[in-house]
Each structure stands twice: as C-alpha cells, then as structure tokens.
Recover the amino acids of this structure.
C-alpha cells in the first residue's frame, strides 16, 4: 500500500451511538427533485440525529449539481449539503452528517469519508418526535445523463428519550389563492394576488 498524506487534521470517524434506521437506495436522474421516504414507527423525543449517505455518480462533478436535504415528519427541513459544497466530486463514501463533527462538509474532500457538519443544523430536529415519515430530498440542476447519481444507501441514527416531544407545527391564519398562469420563453412573468 502506498499512502499519500499531509499533516492536516483528519475527519472524525463515524459514530454509531443511538438507533439506526435505514432507507432504500434510489437514483437521482435528470433535473428536478427526487425523494426517498423512511418510516420510523418507534416512539421517542429526538436528542441528537445523524445521517449517513453513500452515493456514486459516473462523472467527476456528479455531486456539484446536487443539493441534499433531510425533512422530518414535522416538516422541518435541514440542508445537508448544497451543490456549491462539492467540487470535482462524484461519490460519498460512509459520509456522516453530524453537528458535533469537527470539520464542515464544505471543508471536506472527496470521497467525504467520515463525519462532517452539514450546511444546516441537525439540532433543528431536537425535541421533535422521531415517529413518522422522514424524507431524503435530492435536487439536481442538470438534465445531462452524465451527471446521474445513485444513492446506494442512506440511514438515520437517532438518540432519543421518552420525554414529551414538542408539538408539531400548526397552520394558522387565512389562506388566499392566486390564479393559475403560464410562463413561456425567456423573461419575467408575474401574477397578482389582491387581498382586500
């Protein structure tokens, strides 16, 4: 084995405390949003949560066209990584997003093996109930097949207790609906909504 190295601080190894729940593999192909759902039936109030991703693309910049988010059953959205984070990367290998990691994902390098702080804050999920449907949200900004990405595995590791979780958000107020409209060609299209 030949090893090239430097004197920088290495990434933290992944930690496995808590209970791990595994989602299904899926592909992100073409422009737009692709999601994968993970249903947790266990009950508990979240104290800490981490997410691990493994993904492989065919082209060197397959990740540079992707945004990754995790959405809780409460509808809370946390940015894991935005496309500007990844440069010249086409894979994630045992990449753990962990608020307690010492290195940010934007400071990491391919294949991003180890633990990294996400672009958002996973602590936004703390005190929510872990029960329900979690969603991994992946956005691609390109239609090129060369940038297709396979999420080969993903999982959530939750530390929790039996305390009463915070209440889920409620929608209050009055809704107002605008008219449908079409946008075609280059330029700006607008639609007005008058509230009186």
């Amino acid at each position: 084995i030949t090893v090239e190295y430097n004197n920088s601080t290495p990434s933290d190894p992944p930690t496995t405390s808590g209970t791990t729940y595994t989602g299904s593999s899926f592909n992100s192909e073409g422009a737009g949003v692709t999601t994968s759902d993970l249903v947790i039936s266990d009950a508990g109030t979240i104290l800490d949560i981490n997410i691990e991703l493994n993904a492989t693309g065919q082209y060197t910049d397959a990740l540079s066209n992707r945004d990754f988010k995790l959405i809780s059953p409460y509808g809370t959205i946390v940015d894991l990584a935005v496309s500007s984070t990844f440069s010249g990367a086409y894979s994630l290998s045992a990449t753990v997003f962990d608020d307690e990691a010492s290195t940010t994902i934007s400071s990491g390098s391919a294949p991003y093996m180890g633990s990294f702080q996400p672009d958002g804050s996973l602590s936004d999920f703390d005190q929510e109930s872990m029960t329900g449907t979690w969603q991994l949200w992946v956005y691609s900004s390109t239609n090129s097949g060369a940038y297709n990405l396979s999420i080969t595995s993903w999982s959530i590791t939750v530390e929790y207790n039996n305390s009463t979780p915070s209440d889920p958000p409620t929608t209050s107020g009055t809704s107002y609906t605008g008219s449908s409209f079409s946008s075609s060609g280059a330029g700006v299209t607008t639609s007005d909504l008058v509230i009186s």
